[in-house]
Write a structure and sequence with these properties.
The structure holds 2 protein chains of 2 kinds. In chain A, 70% of the residues lie in helices and 2% in strands. Chain A is built from 13 helices and 4 strands. In chain A, the strands form 2 sheets. A two-stranded antiparallel sheet of chain A has the order 1-4. Chain B folds into 2 domains: 90 residues, P-loop containing nucleotide triphosphate hydrolases (Rossmann fold); 251 residues, Rossmann fold. Chain B is globular and about 70 Å long. Chain B has 14 helices and 16 strands. The longest helix of chain B is centred in the N-terminal third of the chain and has 16 residues. The chains are: A mainly alpha, B alpha/beta. At the A-B interface, α8, α9 and α13 of A face β4, α7 and β12 of B.
Chain lengths: 345, 392
């Protein structure tokens, strides 16, 4: 047999990824497109939805879980997970409240009767509890080599128990007005929590996109073994994302306590689901190494809009839970599909 | 079922208890299990994709014998390989693909090595040019002394090291030859601090190092291009720029915190030109590049670090022959610039083409050393398979 095909001199094809890839474009902006479509649908079905009062309301409602979702984005980018955020939030909120009230004796006193410390110390207390909780879990994950899912499942139980123990079952309410302002105030009609959420998102975006630390987070999430062989301190980076998560838990706890003018041990129950859903719906891969803060903000707002719209349309909260559940599974299915496509490319 | 398994095992020369766990078998034996599985399904055609890439020479021979036996039984085999010698050794017909296109089919008896290379690269190209002049100097850059490592429970690798010692001089290329399992990769990983060792000292420029992690080794000027670039070197879903700059972020940052896009672009551009990396942009996902270009990105990462010692483990595995020549020339250039280079390769022709000096390893020990002038494929093979005693 002889040569069947002529050896034509063809130009060596340059590697792919030239030109417009409709799928990758869609994959990148899918959450945003979904959000806009959802808003359009609600606007048509329910005119009250588009009022500025309602839209600010949505934003204010999502600002707490949004703060947590920013921290969670760091964690999930390293292919980790943190289930303890709701529990730690409650504990950190109680710490802030107790500091604000100067102890646990006057927990129900409102107004001038409360002799405590100012909001800066309360904020510091909440953040300190958050950081400590995150650091402990980070250590357990990197030193004891226990998977994040298990460590933070333990944390979820332990921090809730600590919060219940600390508060002895009852809420701590009634803070000084300048503390409450952080949750209830407005700057030029924009609620303060919304401003905090968006400012934090901007800073986190800059950190992930434009700093060496951010690069390393993506690298560790993308391929931990390659990161180690390239000289990165993988354990240090993994531990640090849980500390960052803790920082956002502390901040979120402070804002939540300020908004409710109260802190209680059962606060934040079930938040982990909403927070993880926000991150995943925003396109961050549970496999690590791919995702963005921009996506997380969109995912957070999307869940807020969805719940708000369903409430306005009198859909029962049970049905809402079913819908959220389905959307989470679909978002992850989409991520898995997109990943297999990327692998094949 | 047990009897059937035994019978199948006999047919392909796998003498193992049917109850043995596959993870306890050698890579060669694991491959035989796959062949046996194909046979158990009464396959008439078996496709083998690079079956020999992880096998030693004697294991390859064994596989060939099995394939010939299957052929006698009327079973066809499609054999995918990068090793052209293997095609001449025992294939009847060949098909050459290039960039996803069919470029030639014919009888092996009518073909020549040059013809294959011609078809594969689409242009005239000589065989791998051996190194003609050496850039080796008198100064020792890397000294490894008494590296030892016992197998412990829970170790991923079963391979032990026994008193491994050698030196590499500035500008020298030292080849390490050995069969799979001889401890070559384990030696490289131990030097980088990727695996723990029980004993041994590593000196760079005469200074003893305390290496507890790859970070320490890299800080001291040692680089490793690992065996499996996809699993151990690349962040496949991240951009070329991230893959290239990850180990030298301090070179592309401002205020020691932020990444400077301008400096990073300049870095990527410099190495894109120097290494002739073919890519659409610095933001292209590295996983979408061809194997050769991926390997160049890994090499660029280490070049950017300006190492004193660079260990390359199977530097041209799974890349086409054009890129292979480029990688070889690059290693020559790196040596000429004063870097001490250690090359690990299962292809003896590659070891011979690159090395100033060849170190032989067998069963976790250094068993011999040859200057380039004394080394030949036959001599290396004898030392690798039989050890020092039989070599003379």
């Amino acid at each position: 047999m002889t040569e069947a095909v002529a050896d034509k001199q063809q130009p060596a094809p340059i590697d792919r990824a030239h030109g417009f890839d409709a799928f990758s474009f869609l994959a990148r902006f899918a959450p945003l497109i979904f959000l806009l479509v959802l808003m359009a649908v609600f606007a048509l079905l329910e005119p009250r939805f588009v009022s500025s009062v309602n839209l600010f309301n949505v934003m204010r409602q999502v600002s707490i879980t949004g703060l947590l979702a920013i921290g969670m984005t760091f964690v999930i980018l390293t292919a980790g997970i943190d289930l303890s955020v709701g529990s730690l939030l409650a504990f950190a909120g109680l710490a802030a409240a107790a500091v604000s009230k100067g102890g646990l004796q006057d927990r129900f006193t409102v107004g001038d009767a409360a002799i405590g410390y100012g909001w800066p110390l309360a904020l510091l207390a909440a953040v300190a509890v958050g950081l400590a909780g995150g650091y402990l879990q980070g250590l357990a994950i990197t030193r004891l080599k226990v998977p994040p899912f298990v460590v933070t499942l333990g944390g979820m139980s332990a921090f809730r128990g600590a919060a219940l123990l600390f508060a002895a079952g009852g809420p701590i309410s009634g803070f000084q007005p300048d503390f409450a302002w952080w949750g209830q105030g407005r700057i030029l009609t924009v609620p303060v929590p919304v401003i905090i959420f968006l400012a934090a998102a901007l800073i986190a975006h800059v950190v992930l996109r434009y700093t060496r630390f951010g690069r390393r987070v993506y690298a560790v999430g993308g391929n931990p073994e390659a990161a180690r062989l390239a000289g990165l301190n993988v354990s240090g980076i993994i531990c640090s994302v849980y500390v960052i998560m803790g920082l956002f838990v502390g901040l979120g706890a402070f804002v939540l306590a300020a908004r409710l003018n109260s802190a209680e041990a059962v606060a934040g129950t079930g938040y982990e689901l909403t927070v993880i859903a926000s991150v995943v719906i925003g396109g961050t891969s549970l496999f690590g190494g791919s995702g963005s803060i921009f996506g997380t903000v969109i995912g957070t707002v999307l869940i807020g809009v969805l719940l708000n719209g369903l409430v306005l349309m009198n859909v029962s909260s049970y049905v809402q839970q079913i819908i959220i559940g389905i959307i989470i599974v679909l978002a992850v299915a989409f991520d898995t599909f997109a990943k297999s496509r990327r692998r094949k490319a | 079922m047990e009897a059937q398994t035994l019978e199948l095992g006999r047919r392909i020369g796998l003498e193992r208890s049917p109850h043995a766990l596959v993870r306890d078998l050698s890579v060669a034996e694991q491959q035989l299990v796959e062949v046996a599985r194909a046979l158990s399904m009464k396959s008439r055609l078996i496709v083998m994709d690079e079956p020999t890439s992880a096998l030693s020479r004697s294991e390859v021979e064994k596989l060939f014998t099995i394939i010939r036996r299957l052929k006698a039984d009327g079973i066809s085999t499609i054999f995918v390989t990068h090793r052209l010698e293997e095609v001449f050794e025992f294939c009847d017909r060949y098909t050459v693909l290039r960039d996803g296109r069919h470029v030639g089919t014919g009888a092996v008896a009518d073909a020549t090595m040059d013809r294959f290379i011609n078809l594969m690269v689409g242009r005239e190209l000589g065989l791998l040019a051996p190194r003609t002049d050496s850039s080796a100097t008198g100064t020792v850059a890397l000294a490894v002394q008494g590296l030892s490592r016992k197998r412990k429970r829970g170790d991923a690798s079963a391979i032990e090291l026994h008193d491994v010692s050698f030196e590499v001089r500035k500008g020298e290329i030292l080849g390490i030859a050995g069969l799979v399992g001889a401890g070559r990769t384990e030696t490289a990983r131990a030097i980088l601090g990727a695996d723990r060792v029980d004993a041994g000292r590593i000196l760079v420029d005469g200074q003893p190092l305390r290496i507890t992690s790859p970070r320490d080794a890299i800080g001291a000027g040692i680089g490793l291009v690992p065996e499996d670039r996809k699993q151990q070197a690349l962040f496949l879903e991240l951009a070329v720029r991230t893959n290239l700059s990850i180990a030298v972020l301090d070179r592309v940052s401002t205020l020691r915190v932020f990444i400077s896009g301008r400096k990073e672009d300049a870095l990527v551009d410099e190495y894109r030109r120097r290494l002739n990396i073919r890519m659409a942009s610095a933001n292209q996902q590295v996983g979408t590049l061809s194997g050769g270009n991926q390997q160049k990105v890994v090499l660029a990462r280490w070049l950017a670090l300006r190492p004193k010692v660079l260990i390359v483990d199977e530097p041209t595995r799974g890349i086409d022959i054009g890129a292979k020549v480029e990688v070889h020339n690059l290693l020559f250039q790196m040596a000429a610039s004063g870097i001490a280079i250690v090359v690990i390769s299962s292809e003896l022709s590659e070891i011979l083409a690159l090395s100033d000096r060849v170190l032989l390893m067998r069963a976790g020990r250094v068993t011999g050393e040859l200057a380039r002038s004394e080394a030949s494929q036959e001599k290396l093979m004898t030392l690798m398979t039989l050890g020092q005693r039989h070599a003379a």
